[in-house]
Amino acid sequence: MRLEIDNLVVSLRSDHMLGRGRTVHAVKGVSFAIGTGEAVGLVGESGSGKSTIARAIMGVVPPTTGEIRFLQEGRASGLPKQRRAKLAQMIFQDAAASLNPRLKVGSALNQIIAVHHPRLSARERETMGLGLLRRVALDEMIFDRFPRELSGGQAQRVAIARALIPEPFLLVCDEPVSALDVSVQAGILRLLDDLRRNSGMALLMISHDLAAVRALCDRIVVLKEGEIVEAGPANAICSSPTHAYTKALLDAVAQI
Question: Distances from the Cα of 190 to the Cαs of 136, 155, 157, 194, in angstroms?
Fold first, then answer.
């Protein structure tokens, strides 16, 4: 399996008073690919187009021009919603906000398991849900807790467990550790790396933090104002950057 992004352009209409808005070119001709088991970092400052690319992959915003393709499946825009969900899932910076506050963790997992694995019995769904918690290194007691009772790291692990239910080819991680304590960040990054290596799932790691991306990714794509300014193996990008913007991002990491 392979995700290919070919000359992607995404133009968005900004809201403005009196009904007049302007077109913002958020992504300008971006191309890259991710294969089975690969981890690719998408790096840049706020407003560089990282999250817009993620939303385009997930089908939340349509490409203006260019294509997003899943090889052996075809153009992403032509895929049924449930099939697309089996190809790509997404986790967010604020994991707790992405969980239903009215549902205990077990009930939330059960609902999604029922959608993607409709032939399972209630007992089998519960068994699968508990297994997912163990897979993301959470105690089974979490099953009966509400999101408000979870720490930030626990909430992110639950979000990852939920994303694993369709057994996706690709996990899109939009700033997944930036809201967490440094010690917790390391554990989440290790979990993502273990899942990738053990399952062959591909990762797209979106971040402004080159240090976090360097710890996880094989390749890095550097974005500035919607365009790729540098791309290559993670070690080469971090040790010998060629673009001044990349050097500035690395300098920012070194000063922390």
Answer: 10, 16, 12, 6
Q: Which amino acid is at 83?
A: R
Q: Is 137 exposed, middle or buried (0-12, 13-18, 19+ CB in 10 A)?
A: middle
Boundaries of every domain in the chain: 2-254
Written as six digits, the tokens of 111 are: 């609902």
Inform me whether the pLDDT recorded for 167 exceeds 60.
yes
| Sheet strand arrangement including 22-35 | 22-35, 2-14, 65-70, 74-75
Fold of 2-254: Rossmann fold (3.40.50)
**Residue pLDDT, tens place only, 189-215:** 999 999 999 999 999 999 988 888 988
The reply to whether the predicted model has a pTM over 0.85 is yes
What Å distances lie between residue 113 and 65, 124, 159, 209, CA to CA?
A: 35, 10, 13, 33
Helices (H) and strands (E) in the chain, counts: 9, 10
